[in-house]
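Field reference: sequence -> structure
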Amino acid sequence: MLFDTHVHLNARQFDEDREEVIKRARETGVEYMVVVGFDRETIPLAIEIAESHDNIYAAVGWHPVDAIDMKEEDLSWIEELSAHPKVVAIGEMGLDYHWDKSPADVQKDVFRKQIALAKKVKMPIIIHNREATQDIVDVLKEENADEVGGIMHCYSGDVEIAKECIEMNFMISLGGPVTFKNAKLPKEVAEAIDLDHLLIETDCPFLAPHPNRGKRNEPAYVKLVAEQVAELKGMSYEEICNKTTENALNFFKIDK
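Structure field:
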């Protein structure tokens, strides 16, 4: 049994064959998924997909790239949706310094507001980080995000930062890059971090694992991530599947 903790089945890349993609995931052993909505377009579809399928859940938040577009009513909307029985986390949120659409100070403001909201509604958060590791760690500490904890989604940092995040009540989630031949840091993290603190994901349709790199990613491929983590940790595939699924169920407070 597998739990893909971060999917974007609400992306336009799945408009033509969404149900077939979900069926393939089920046939591969992917029992649970969390669909992440991050703007006005993707949030409603994340909720709709979760409502329509057993064991598919939703997270709702605002992506840092689009922070400049977020209005106060959007924050209120996310707060309302947090009460939905299928919504299990707030996010993805964070900082992204790769793209320059939203200035850093605007991103940080929106990030802090979402952490405050998560603390208000007592829900964990999902962190997006691109080229902003130290600033993200600083904001999480300053805002006492450890009160709700969360997930470092598609973690790409080093072992020391991972340990720092774990101390703040965060899980480390590994995705497709852990399978890439030259992805030194994710492999080191997979080896070094105790399995109690690890989750797996695809971030589909992005970052497809080897040997599908460069193609559209989909939840069925989370199996390839699990296989790579098992190899790196010298454990069985079944052990990785069972433990990462148990971790995710506990993290999201989902009853089996």
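Note: The chain has one domain: 2-252.
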